[in-house]
Design brief:
Elements (H helix, E strand, L loop, with lengths): L6 E4 L2 E4 L52 H4 L7 H9 L13 E2 L2 E2 H12 L3 H12 L33 H21 L10 E2 L5 E2 L4 H9 L9 H18 L14 E2 L1 E6 L5 E7 L6 E6 L2 E5 L8 E4 L7 E8 L5 E9 L7 E7 L2 E6 L8 E6 L2 E3 L8 E2 L3 E5 L4 E10 L5 E11 L1
Parallel strand pairs: 7-14
Antiparallel strand pairs: 1-2, 3-4, 5-6, 8-9, 9-12, 10-11, 10-13, 13-14, 14-15, 15-16, 16-20, 17-18, 17-19, 17-21, 21-22
Helix pairs in contact: 2-3, 3-5, 4-7, 5-6
Amino acid sequence: MLKWRHAAMVLGMMVLAWGAGCADEAPVPEAEAPYLDADPADLAEVPSTTLKRDLGVPATFGRNNIMSDEFFTNVDAVDAAAVQRFLESTPYGGRSWLASARLDGKPASEALVEASREAGINPVVMLARMQVESSLINRSTNPGSRADYAFGCGCPDGRSCSSAYRGLARQVECAGATLRGRYEESVAGSGIWSRGVAKRTSDRYTVTPENHATASLYTYTPWVLPNRGGNWLVWNVTRRFAVHFEELGLLREPGSPKVDATPMGVAWEFEADLRTINLTTDAPEGIARVEYFVEDYLIGAGDPADNFALRYRFNGQKADRQLDVVGYDASGQAVGLATGRLDTDASIGLYIRQVGAQTFEMGIERPTPGAVFVELVVDGTPVTDDVSGKLRTDRMAVLHTYSGLGTRRFELSTFNADGSYRGTLRRTFEVW
């Protein structure tokens, strides 16, 4: 039977959690232990493999390190196409019903990747949680209402679940936001569980999380339960899924480019209809062809006589879309790459675009009237605009060359002319 989790009020705002509660010093009845009703297939440890690299989920269970921060936050570990292939051929030897499911009109694979990236969580982690919580991945047929509260978000103990969080799409969104929130609390040192701070679990183990990811997972589920449930099961299922993605050749390491290629620069302008885009690429010598992909869909090839220019009109409007630009040499080998994010709707037009090796610009294409300055903070650190040399710039964009590579959290804040704060826009993006 699926066990619903708690909901709590924090600083006057609802923060939804699905952990089994805080790890109190008093013993907690075994009947309240999470995931003891797990699918038998998930209780078998992952077979030994011949993988040549560390996946970020240890090969053997250790209660102080369930998975690494790099794995937990690697939002680009898999894309929607990889998740779709995983659902078509799961590690359980069959096809998941989710391979055909749609969430709010989108394929489940696409919706899950979008929600994971928005929250700053590895989509593999989210897939594993779906299996741990309600055995959704290994089911071949639609489980019906069982999926409506798959993560238990909005289901306080002893009360009915809130209809506001009904539906798998909302459950995925809620789950990602909560996991990331618990992670950030550990980073700030304010969490119920925090990195480097020893604490007793509900089944009386002393755990000292070695990283923020592990702290987040114990805040979520303060049980160890080796070989039976709790965070042992979280580790075991996540490891199984990561190994399966790796064996399918679909798992990317944090900070690794999509192809072994020379970085290029990409630029674009939208026309007045806000749907038609004019793209160009600053490609190094030797690039004979440039192709543009939006969310892994090829939208066209550029004109080599005009900076590989491409004019394209989007049929649908959508915010935060992934752009990849691949350059090919005369033999057809991929030798160049640029990447970015862009809004293809009528919103403010937030964008990130690659300018060169480790160099990216984040800015606003359609600023709100009154906004005059922007400031950029990446992973909690203010970033200086390389063009103006200022932290707060009226260019409405910040260009910077990064030394720390991998998945980073971008926060762009806008200000009025008098310096008063307007708001903050956020994206999670891979710098390479």
